[in-house]
Write a structure and sequence with these properties.
heterotrimer; A: mainly alpha; Serine Threonine Protein Phosphatase 5, Tetratricopeptide repeat; 0% strand; globular; B: mainly alpha; two-stranded antiparallel sheet; 10 helices; 2 strands; 78% helix
Chain lengths: 328, 271, 282
Amino acid sequence: MRHGKGTILCVLAVGAGMLAVWGPALRENALVARASYSASLTEAKLRARNQSAFSKILGETRATAADLMFVKTMNYAHAGVGYAPTTSMNASGEGALLSCGPGVPTLIRAAGDDFRGFLGNLERQVKPYRDSSQAHVHTEETELMPWYRIITLSNPNFVRAYRIGSSILSRDGKWDEARQFLEEGLKQNAENPERFLLYHSLAYLYLSMARVNATDQPEQASKYLEQALESATQSYELGLPCRPPEGKSDTPQNGVLWTDTIEEDFRMVSLLIPQILDHQGHREEALARATEIEKTYPDFQPLQALMQRLAHSTDQVGPQPEEGRITP
Amino acid sequence: MKQRLRNIWLLAWTLMLEAWRRREIYIIVAVTVALIAGLRMVHFFDLEGLGKFYREICLKTMNLTTGLTVIFLAARQLPREFTNRTIYPLLAKPVSRMEFLLGKYCGVLAASVFCYALFLGVFLAGSLSLHAPVQMGLFLQSIYLQIVAFAVLAALVFMLSMLMTPEGAVTLALILFVASQVLMNLMDTLYDFMSEPGRVALLVLHFVIPQLTLFDLSSKVINSVDVQKGVTRVVWEPLAAGTMGTLTLYGAVYIVLFLGGAYLLFRRKPL
Amino acid sequence: MSEPVSGSPNHPEIPVNSVWRNVGLVAKLTGLDFTRRHDFAIVAMLMGLFLLATLVIRIIGLNPNDREAFENTARFLMSAGLAFSHLLAAVLAASFSARSLSEEFERRTLLPLLAKPVTRGEVLGGKLLACLGLSVGSYLLFVALTLLAVPTVPGQQALALGQTLLLCVVGLVCLGTLSAALAIRWTGLLAALAALAWYFGGGLLIQLTEQAVRTHWPALWGGLRRVMACLPDLGLLNQTECFATTSGHLSAGLFGGLLLYGVGWSLFFFLWTRWRFERVRL
């Protein structure tokens, strides 16, 4: 090399400086651009893609690393048995375990439908396999936590992982960790229209914490209840603009693809607001909120029952003893 | 017979010594051991006993790196002897070509089993410290089947190295090894879309290509035990003796075929 | 071993066009070496596998009667085909570049080569030119096979295809030069593996590290981000999904930035390789 060491070092320093200054912005733009490619595909199109031969070959429905890892958590939860991908399992991670049961076909062929002879039999014995007519085996969900941690590290916009992860942590009594996980999700998704779902999970987390502390630490419990109310309100206010008029849509609205499960979650968090207000003794405010929510859900029976009770109790004079229990 | 076995053992031992001198093996082993040990240090939400994740990453890494070691070791054994012309003094000794081939093969197998044993030691130490129990019967079966898989792979690579350049053999073996995870699934799915002649061809392919995924018990080992509220229950029992026998026979058929093919090609190769 | 030095009394000044001639000759020599050692068998084998895969695609069939399913499946298959082309080409780029140098060292054939009136830089240039030419040519061939087998759907822009191909080619050049740099000290196999591992996994590693620091030590994140930006994230140059998923084309700024990024790193790796090669003792 004919150039002096000084020249080389200068060039290297300038290069490193340019990278340090513009590199982060370039990386961020490139990664955001790449993330937007799959977002341009709607749920309906992804569902159609799920049925393609090649997606079946790979046994999963999406191509990103985070989605692959999410499918792995489904396998873990079923003791390693791989079930054929279904839309409900992918759209709503939380509801999947409760609603899964016999009848869902497995990825490995059943004996009656197998052309491979003894090779097929060997596969059914070597790999985790249960006939689709048998009930599912569900194993300890705590074992899924490392994957949820990695999913959120590799894709901080994977809201479902934060929600399910915090749900598992709270079930194991790790309240602080659950709360911190959700708060981290909120921090990472400040611009994500789906963040109202994180507030939904946070509301129910605070509600559970309030219940646990109700007997021993009533003051702390009422603080948690207040925080639950705040989170539920945030969830409702952020989620309402994203909700399609019929409560379901095949195309995203304001960046959120509104599925049946999201509709159910949103309905319940809407009910939670007047329930908490009622529990706190703010009956008139509770009735006002319930009336407002009724415009969105005119046929929601629990809401109507609550409104009737509130209307009856506000007609009476003086403070009334607290009735009922907040049921999510 | 005793002399033949001694010759094979000496050749295998020489290969082991040679393998220990190669830097790639040390680096592969060091990186894998560091990964397994490092994984033990990682904590997720202060949760204890997260055995499945640990088992999954460790077992997959161990199987992958040992498979790579087998491929890289086996691909160069025979061609290098020809290139370096060290085959002449070797065969000038009272060593037949069959003994030579078997000695090399056993050496590759011994080196890979040694690597695997090293990884297993670190893995088991980590599992014990994690208090994450493993279903021992199933685990031992998985070790045995992995060794059979490595034996099939090594025999395949030996045969390929006689058919093409070492790089070509490594490439094809790598593709088969990596693709073996999805190959069975792939062919299974294609079957539904094929016409009748296509289905027959696919069925033939099923039996011609060695299905290495059948020797991979790691999915069951990972999910073998479930600990809920302090109670441990066994989810997957060890495989039946008949199944183990069938798998061993299945592997043995391929080993004999591939080694036989390698020997025939080696015998015809002019020195 | 003394090497010809231009301008010295015993050796006449070497004209500039002679440099390119020497590079071309070394490249031709390397190419012939590959052909003679049947290394093209590897490329032919990979192309064969690829052809088989594309034939299978046709057999599985894209049902033209269901328009939506047809388009969705075609999109998915295009994405898979382009990804596979990229993967195969990357393996070729890393392994050929690493081997071309490491084998010269092992066989000691570098000495007689350098005894001829060629400089080390010309030898390196010629070898890299041959290896990368082969890899890039194979990549373009694989992509052409994918485009032949899988129909394009509305929304897949030619501009997007051109952009992504150019970025991938630059990425392959980066990978090849990195692999060659590592192969000067390491064995060819190790160098190729390390280069491939960084090429495919480096970006994820950087991302995970950044996220972990951001979560647990937020005060350090800002500074770390800038430091991490100085590491080559070659995965950024892979934007094939942009074409396959009908997301339009990359903006001029982003495309220009990525191109400059890739070319800059290629140049750095090449100069680094040359610097190491000129200092290695034979």
